[in-house]
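Severity: low
Component: inverse-folding endpoint
Summary: output formatting inconsistent between runs
Steps to reproduce: submit the following structure tokens with default settings.
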């Protein structure tokens, strides 16, 4: 080997080594775009604190050795405001975006990020979806740049209906949901899955209401009672679920509620002891997970006098750290490639970012609202109550097929 060639090889090796180590201590900015005003502000405020809390935790320990910084931007739950927020973040050089409250917002972000990445090679952006669960985002509208860390509506309903089919007391169901894509999908998949597994169950009513605008759900509760329903299925979240539960308690509706978001800000307080044993939640976590999750929840509660429930944020920081270490880079193009199909251990077991559609495959839990005790001690919003796990659904049970035709750059 000639001296000049050996020198060139050595220089290249040292350069690569230095480049690989350049990420150590590098600050990775993540723009959080969700509501901090309006009726859903309490949910947004909780989740922003959750992301910032975890950014600090993962900055102290992640395999890539990077630091995370979360920049919160209020989108007022508006797609138009969210696009302005996206532009503002990108203008500041932010390459990682997270959002989750409202699939209408998520759809606008996916489209905008697709167009930006196509038109601006070298300045690509990744969208880390923490809670927007419209199945279309990992089917007909799937994108290489979109990664969903929550389970989508169809996955949750697959698990929920598997649980409900074994409850003979359920005979008549009322569907009450928010009038946007998520609410429509909850109603659609409820009818499909329950119709397949328990064709004897009747759907005796269906309503859609404006998102984050209704302040009094008493008229809806009156309709539910008049229908003779013994069970309500709702994908409502935030104030729309808290106020619904409050109206049910005040209106004397004693049937079951099957929900996606009982654990979210405001709903525990609205429930109090009134929903004991009859309000259920299907989700990828619950209040009594144990382990590292329990420790972080305790710290979060002490620091903020609030409850941590957005576990998908843990998935996000886990994946960013692992993928950046694997890629030896914080470049979104290399990180996206590393996350594509990546399996790792998380708080709810082994998870996998499915290559076909970038939908995280994970364990789901059915839990029910009951009194907190020594076995299940976590006490949200000082209610003396908690969500107790009653059924675990391994990833293969809730996994649903995809029609995604992923366009890989």
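Observed output (run 2 of 3):
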């Amino acid at each position: 080997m000639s001296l000049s060639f050996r020198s060139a090889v050595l220089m290249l090796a040292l350069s690569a080594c230095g480049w690989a180590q350049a990420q150590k201590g590098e600050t990775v900015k993540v723009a959080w775009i969700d509501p901090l005003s309006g009726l859903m502000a309490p949910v947004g405020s909780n989740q922003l604190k959750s992301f910032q809390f975890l950014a600090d935790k993962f900055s102290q320990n992640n395999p890539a050795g990077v630091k995370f910084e979360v920049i919160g931007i209020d989108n007022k739950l508006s797609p138009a405001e969210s696009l302005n927020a996206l532009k503002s973040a990108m203008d500041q050089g932010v390459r990682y975006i997270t959002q989750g409250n409202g699939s209408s917002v998520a759809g606008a972000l996916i489209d905008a990020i697709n167009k930006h990445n196509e038109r601006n090679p070298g300045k690509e952006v990744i969208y880390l979806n923490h809670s927007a669960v419209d199945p279309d985002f990992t089917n007909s509208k799937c994108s290489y740049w979109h990664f969903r860390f929550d389970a989508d509506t169809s996955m949750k309903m697959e698990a929920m209906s598997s649980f409900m089919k074994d409850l003979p007391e359920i005979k008549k169901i009322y569907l009450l949901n928010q009038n946007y894509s998520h609410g429509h999908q909850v109603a659609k998949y409820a009818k499909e899955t329950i119709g397949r597994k328990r064709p004897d169950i009747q759907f005796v009513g269906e309503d859609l209401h404006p998102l984050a605008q209704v302040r009094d759900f008493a008229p809806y509760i009156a309709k539910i009672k008049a229908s003779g329903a013994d069970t309500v299925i709702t994908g409502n979240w935030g104030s729309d679920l808290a106020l619904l539960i409050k109206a049910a308690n005040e209106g004397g509706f004693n049937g079951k509620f099957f929900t996606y978001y009982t654990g979210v800000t405001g709903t525990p307080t609205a429930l109090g002891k009134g929903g004991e044993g009859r309000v259920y939640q299907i989700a990828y976590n619950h209040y009594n997970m144990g382990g590292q999750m329990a420790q972080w929840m305790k710290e979060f509660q002490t620091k903020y006098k609030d409850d941590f429930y957005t576990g998908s944020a843990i998935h996000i920081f886990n994946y960013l750290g692992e993928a950046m270490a694997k890629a030896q880079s914080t470049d979104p193009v290399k990180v996206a490639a590393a996350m594509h199909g990546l399996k790792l251990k998380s708080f709810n077991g082994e998870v996998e970012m499915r290559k076909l559609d970038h939908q995280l495959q994970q364990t789901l839990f059915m839990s029910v609202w009951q009194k907190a005790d020594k076995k299940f001690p976590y006490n949200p919003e000082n209610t003396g109550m908690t969500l107790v796990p009653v059924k675990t659904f391994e990833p293969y049970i809730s996994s649903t097929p995809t029609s995604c035709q992923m366009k890989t750059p």
